[in-house]
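Backbone-to-sequence.
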């Protein structure tokens, strides 16, 4: 093989490998998108979160279903704000959850979807969750609700929850 053909083959292989590496690097880049339109983070975009928050959230779901407030609070701030579906803002602690769990016979919190997004350039991660919850209270009442929820983590700890609700049909 003459030197010009060998050089051409080496160049083609080199550019092919370089192109593959560049394509792989581009696939690992996360694109931001979406837009916050109000509040203190107005103008910020979101990126799919790649931290441990989704894993911590799923562990919290398991702990909630086991009515284990201490396990929930492993990933929570001392006090967590909850803006309920009715518009009431409350700050709850581990003790508040222990009190709530003491009034419940059984419960089920099922997650249909969970999407972790990070406010680009910050340590704030929001998990958007489509959920179904059934609580059987010791007094015989039953609460069945479908929720859309936003869980806010800052520095890896749950600091806030916002909820929107809809009726949950018996067959769901």
């Amino acid at each position: 093989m003459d030197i010009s053909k060998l050089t051409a083959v080496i160049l083609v292989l080199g550019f092919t490998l370089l192109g593959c590496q560049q394509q792989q690097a581009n696939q690992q880049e996360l694109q931001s998108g979406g837009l916050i339109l109000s509040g203190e983070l107005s103008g910020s975009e979101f990126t799919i979160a790649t931290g441990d928050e989704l894993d911590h959230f799923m562990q919290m779901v398991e702990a909630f279903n086991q009515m284990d407030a201490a396990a929930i609070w492993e990933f929570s701030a001392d006090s967590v704000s909850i803006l309920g579906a009715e518009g009431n803002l409350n700050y709850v602690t581990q003790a508040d959850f222990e009190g709530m769990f003491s009034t419940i016979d059984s419960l089920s919190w099922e997650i249909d979807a969970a999407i972790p997004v990070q406010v680009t350039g910050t340590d704030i991660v929001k998990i958007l969750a489509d959920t179904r919850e059934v609580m059987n209270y010791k007094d015989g009442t039953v609460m069945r609700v479908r929720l859309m929820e936003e869980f806010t983590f800052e520095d890896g700890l749950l600091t806030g929850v916002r909820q929107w609700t809809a009726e949950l049909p018996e067959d769901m």
